[in-house]
């Protein structure tokens, strides 16, 4: 008789299966502290996402109403079409490079973004970047759901004429129809999320290509209506000279990087599922520069065709579909852009806080519970009231968003320079004061200092220049466009400097057992389910020379 397979090692605090994966997918070990681990956060036993899955992830992230409007808005800066395309391409290549950097530690260890931070910020210190990223995601989750609800409203108004009367009734600043559409999408997104990462993977595998089909059909329709000879690609209302356009192009490049900075920071949440780092890099190549260039070309063609067809430039795809006024176009376009917005919302603003909040209290907050916190919190923020207020967005999200750059810079410096791409995976799940990532009371002092050194200038540059301009003092608001780069550079440089004078991050020189080494080619360094868990009596190795342990 065939032997009965040994059940996965689990504990009483394994609240749910690993982030929607089959039970036992997280390699829980008896020695893992329940205050740091559940099956959602533990290293994956098996990583099987292909390069297409990563490619589809970026398609869902790019193919959104926000991405379309962002690309179209660059024309208002006075750039010509070729300059817009160059800025978009350069910006997305930078995003690709940084996404590869942040992907490696998670893919090699099989753990999500907040857990990787434990090796750099400390076991407790890692909660700081997790909470910051989680709060940003909650705010944008509400905004994206509201934008999708606006698309659904158009469908209701077209096919259910009586629904127009619901626009006259409002509660908390949102019409009754808006509440219905928002509620439908809120529930739909939550059900999709609740079914786990495999269902989400299948959804984004479908959503990205589906949006492409509709975008291509929309572009063909508008070009045929306009006549290709009547389309001009010089859409800017003001024409800048070549030299005057150079700084504007740099600002456009910075805008592209800033737009993707959120999902780029926590890309490890998805890269951990990649079957190899090479597969992740290949997916990033096709999903970012190649995919984004094609999407940008479609955006430019479609936006250009709206001028001769409708007599004005329309950069919002929802308004473009609404202007066509055909029942089929509204139904297909409305539902497609709903799908697109749900796709980006799930990958950028739902999964991130799910892992981030679970990281804060793994025993009490599962992956699903973390997502529930984000979903409920987004409603209480009533995003429809402040999304149309540029000042509210700038002074609230600008404050938190300015910290994304420093967090990114510190993580990259910590992994590639201080740790030399060597992480002891099991050590990220122990509260032992002698553990290598305990540092000082659970916080790496160098990471805390670097966050202050980089975070204060980043927040200042991201928020105060606009405040000074609004007060009529002086206008240096252009510098805010580069707050991510400044914060990232300062975070990277200051952390490297602090580690050079007072090393804290261990490199485990001469050790190989249990160490994930990113310098070694090949697949992930996670432990397969066939490997037995290490006994709880074996202590985690002490920190390497130079690492603080108290």
For the report, how would you describe the main beta sheet? 2 strands, antiparallel
Radius of gyration: 24 Å
Going across the major beta sheet, what is the strand order? 1-2
Strand content: under 5%
Helix content: 55-70%
SSE-based structural type: mainly alpha
InterPro entries: Pur-cyt_permease, Uracil/uridine/allantoin_perm
Keywords: Membrane, Transmembrane, Transmembrane helix
Organism: Microbacterium dextranolyticum
Transmembrane segments: 54-76, 82-103, 130-149, 169-194, 206-228, 248-267, 288-314, 326-348, 369-387, 393-418, 450-469, 481-498
Description:
It is a multi-pass membrane protein. The chain crosses the membrane at residues 54-76, 82-103, 130-149, 169-194, 206-228, 248-267, 288-314, 326-348, 369-387, 393-418, 450-469, 481-498. It comes from Microbacterium dextranolyticum. GO terms for molecular function: nucleobase transmembrane transporter activity. Keywords: Membrane, Transmembrane, Transmembrane helix. The protein starts with 50 loop residues before the first helix and ends in a 33-residue tail after the last strand. The model is unreliable at 1-18 and 526-550 (pLDDT under 50). The strands form two sheets. It has a two-stranded antiparallel sheet with strand order 1-2. The protein has a two-stranded antiparallel sheet with strand order 3-4. It contains 19 helices and four strands. It is globular, with a radius of gyration of 24 Å. It has 550 residues and is an all-alpha fold. It has helices spanning 51-62, 65-73, 81-109, 113-121, 127-159, 176-194, 197-226, 242-259, 261-265, 268-271, 277-310, 317-324, 327-360, 367-380, 383-386, 390-401, 404-418, 445-470, 483-501, and strands at 170-171, 174-175, 422-424, 515-517. The longest helix is centred in the middle third of the chain and has 34 residues, at 277-310.
